[in-house]
Design goal:
Layout: E1 4-6, H1 27-50, E2 63-70, H2 82-88, E3 92-98, E4 103-109, H3 123-139, E5 144-150, E6 154-161, H4 164-175, H5 188-198, E7 204-209, H6 218-227, E8 229-236, E9 248-253, E10 259-263, H7 267-290, E11 294-299, H8 304-322, H9 328-334
Parallel strand pairs: 4-5, 4-7, 7-8, 8-11
Antiparallel strand pairs: 1-9, 2-3, 5-6, 9-10
Helix pairs in contact: 1-3, 1-4, 1-8, 3-4, 5-6
Length: 335
């Protein structure tokens, strides 16, 4: 699908942190400014809202078998050891200990289509801020994060490390890289395949993209999810879903340079645009469900804190439901 949008749409620069700026400024200083602003306005709010639920972001990684015991009502039925259950004539579950040092990877799509934004924020800025916030939350609790960045191909790999300085390096790599220009359609499957081959240890993998790509990324995403805990983080702009009446517009495909003049005053054209956008939304969400990954949507006009809190709450509810007790037919067998 082509990534059409009004020519010349751009975003304002990221807001400065409310402190006096140093005398010198440069790319590294820009990343520091953004990081300090996020720590002040976003991470502090999340500290109060998440209340220790940071491990929910890394659910299901680094597990070692520690013990076997009888099944209890709150246990996850997926941990039942059926061989021991058959021998003991009562349900028994495996008890795991979590590896304290967990790792997360960010597979980030920075192709030309993410440079679009109809308001103050571009999709690229939303992606960068999300990665910086999650990476900082995780590294503050002793976890390690790494990243793979895609422009016209996978051009940057940042190994997993911990600490604020490492998060700053990651943020700088996203914000201050050179624009790739018109490179042709995004091939998201290349990023996913590279992640699958490079990430050896089981990890939480955040795939951050607008998912405007050539077809064929669905299978690599599903394969990645077979080994890792995968979260699809989709960035979007409201103008990609619904066009207002703006009269004649010159629209340009950011990845191929192709231009098209459209009349947004035509109500029929706007309806067709909305219908095609809705169809793409339905197909994208169905593909993510089929790939068995969790999904989070980030809009350029939405609050990042609210989006992250909703996502963590969703994962927490899913965990609670999955450990809600033994099904009735298994309880009957156990009895």
């Amino acid at each position: 699908m082509k990534s059409w949008w009004p020519k010349g749409g751009k975003a304002a620069p990221a807001a400065a942190v409310p402190e006096p700026p140093p005398a010198a400024a440069g790319p590294a200083h820009h990343a520091e400014q953004v990081m300090r602003r996020l720590e002040w306005k976003v991470i502090r709010r999340l500290d109060g809202l998440l209340q220790g639920d940071y491990r929910t972001l890394l659910r299901g990684t680094g597990l070692d078998l520690a013990d076997l015991r009888e099944y209890q009502l709150h246990d996850d039925v997926r941990h039942i050891d059926w061989n021991v259950t058959a021998r003991m004539q009562s349900p028994h579950v495996r008890v795991f200990t979590e590896d304290r040092e967990m790792s997360a990877w960010f597979l980030v799509d920075l192709s030309p289509s993410v440079d679009f934004g109809s308001g103050e924020m571009r999709k690229r800025n939303v992606s960068a801020e999300f990665v910086a916030v999650i990476a900082r939350l995780l590294t503050r609790h002793g976890n390690r994060v790494g990243a793979m960045l895609y422009g016209s191909g996978v051009d940057t790999v940042i190994p997993t490390r911990s600490g604020r300085r490492h998060v700053l390096h990651l943020l700088h790599s996203m914000l201050d890289r050179r624009a790739t220009g018109e490179t042709g359609p995004t091939r998201l499957h290349e990023l996913l395949a590279s992640g699958a081959s490079m990430i050896k240890r089981r990890s939480t993998v955040f795939v951050v993209s607008d998912f405007i790509s050539e077809p064929g990324w669905e299978r690599p995403l599903a394969q990645l999810a077979q080994r890792h805990e995968v979260v699809a983080v989709r960035v979007l702009d409201p103008l990609e879903l619904d066009l207002p009446d703006l009269g004649l517009l010159t629209m340009r495909d950011a990845e191929t340079g192709e231009q098209l003049v459209v009349d947004t005053h035509d109500a029929g054209f706007r309806r067709r645009f909305a219908r095609i956008a809705a169809q793409r939304e339905a197909e994208l969400r169905a593909a993510l469900v089929k790939s068995n990954v969790d999904a989070l949507e980030l809009s350029t006009d939405a609050d990042l804190v609210d989006a992250i809190v909703r996502f963590v709450d969703m994962r927490k509810r899913r965990t609670q439901l999955s450990s809600g007790g033994l099904p009735a037919h298994l309880r009957a067998v156990a009895a």
